[in-house]
Write a structure and sequence with these properties.
It comes from Mycobacteroides abscessus MAB_030201_1075. Its EC number is 3.5.1.6. Keywords: Hydrolase. This protein has 2 helices and no strands. With 53 residues, the chain is mostly helical. The radius of gyration is 17 Å and the shape is flat. The relative contact order is 0.14.
């Protein structure tokens, strides 16, 4: 799947284990990251209470 959720080639087997290798369009990855910007507003310094055992 590409970063937008579209299939970009053959789909693996539904019954057998497989390794599927695909080339990625890195310009599309960059574009989607720029559009959504999930990581821009991350605040890892506030994760402590959430991830503490």
């Amino acid at each position: 799947m590409d970063p937008r959720g579209n299939y970009v080639g053959e789909i693996g087997s539904a019954t057998d284990e497989e390794i599927v290798i695909r080339d990625l369009d890195l310009s599309l990855v960059r574009q989607v990251r720029d559009d959504w910007q999930f990581y821009r507003d991350r605040r890892p310094d506030t994760y402590g209470p959430i991830i503490a055992p």
